[in-house]
Amino acid sequence: MAFHLLSVEEADALRLAQSIVDLREQLGICRRCFNVTSSEECALCRDPKRDGSIVCVVERAQDIAVIERTQEFRGRYHVLGGSISPIGGVGPGQLRIAELGDRIAAEGIVELIVATNPTVEGDVTAMYLARELKPTGVRITRLAMGLPVGGDLDYADELTLGRALTGRMEI
Questions:
Q1: For the whole model, what pTM was predicted?
Q2: d(CA 125, CA 81)
Q3: Are 79 and 58 in contact (CB under 8 A)?
Q4: Per-residue pLDDT tens for 48-76?
Q5: E-assigned strands of the chain?
Q6: CATH hierarchy code of domain 29-144+153-166
């Protein structure tokens, strides 16, 4: 990127710099779900057609775009802001878990779909959420994990194949 910026006209580089500054000034965080937005609440939280009783919990705001591309989920979201990582120095208090707990009662949420990454940190975060939020009575589910569509069993690792066997569905 540095080489490119040095090769363009100074005016173009300054326009890009101003665009970045403008973007930072115009965007913020949704007060409800912590998605990126240009208003107090993001478009997904304001959409009356979305089911507010089901919330998909993700690590980062970028994860929302990935799930939205499927066009399968019609609920709302909650961005944790990362995952629990003792090695990385990230504990539960540094994530937006308390805010999620507050939303459960205030918004009448009946199901949380935990869509954290299938990593050690994502699994720890999912288990922590389940343990902490089960007493609220909310149903807590986790995205299914297993073999990718078009994948070949020869290339599946033991953990992925094991999860695929455990999470199998009737056809």
A1: 0.83
A2: 11
A3: yes
A4: 999 999 999 999 999 999 999 999 999 99
A5: 28-29, 36-37, 51-58, 75-79, 111-114, 139-142
A6: 3.40.1360.10
